[in-house]
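FecCD family ABC transporter permease structure dump, as promised
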Amino acid sequence: MSSSSALTDRRQKLHMPRNFTTVLVVCIVLLGVCAVASLVLGSRPVRFHELIDGLFHPDIDSYGANIVRKRISRTVFSLLCGAALGVSGALMQSVTRNPIADPSILGVNTGAALFVVSGIAFLNISTANQYIWLALAGAAITAIFVFGIGSMGRGGATPIKLVLAGAATSAAISSLVAAILIPRSYVMDQFRFWQVGSVGSGSWSAIATFAPFLIVGVLIAIVTAPALNALALGDDVATGLGVRTGVLRLVAALAGVILCGAATALAGPIGFVGLLSTHVMRLILGPDLRFVIPMSAIAGALILTIADVSGRLIGSPGELEVGVVTAFIGAPILIILAMRSKVRSL
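structure tokens r here:
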């Protein structure tokens, strides 16, 4: 096959999926429905007039309207964290060429948790700004370590080796976290709520802290998407197309770590969101990351918001943390996906 025909075939493969518009419209509608549900549903349901008062009449100081106003920041925070985890999952799967790569499976969340708990125990940190930098450092170091271990030996970084390296690293780091927590009850009390993963602490200040990291990570993901498409064809082909594979992997992985680490710092280690959102979008839309990345952001926001609302309803009058709900929902879906498709390199 000539080079011109090969280039033509490649362009044809990267055209917009036929069902992209339909999927986009459906997801946006569902996103709106979930956002309204997040404002209305909970341990104390909100009536329609209270929803209107809370959204459009700031001068009205009623109990229901105040609940709506508090839930607005929580809903926005949930949507943004879900989007960040969705994009992070897409980037990690592409960089590692592993269809089941996810911040939680690769141990990145656990690495962020180790640095956060160490900061609480030894540095007396207590603010979101302090959490976020420690979590980013822990996520980055863990990602480098897991990829280094998974790349050793014959065959390089295969999907199975990366998952095993991530599982082993996560187990070891969890032991270190327990060793720090057990003799320090005051640290355990502060860390316990964060550890299970929750968007209940979402506030406008947390959103303001998180937004710059989200913007930077998403922009890098969008810019690198065409090159990551080339990387999916193999390193040799990507190099032939002019892609600097080493630099690309470093930049894309950095963006994934920024998104995952920032979300983990503020909401705790929430698993399965990045894995599920990206995997489902690949199945529906195909492999083109120019479309998978933005749709993974929307799907991640949907999954996390649905999990948050479900946790409030299931745990009423209390609340079941969103990290527990995503694990409960994600595990069986992951099993179904694994049964229907082979786990192979992307």
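Residues 72-340 form a domain with the ABC transporter involved in vitamin B12 uptake, BtuC fold (CATH 1.10.3470.10).
lmk if u need the other ones
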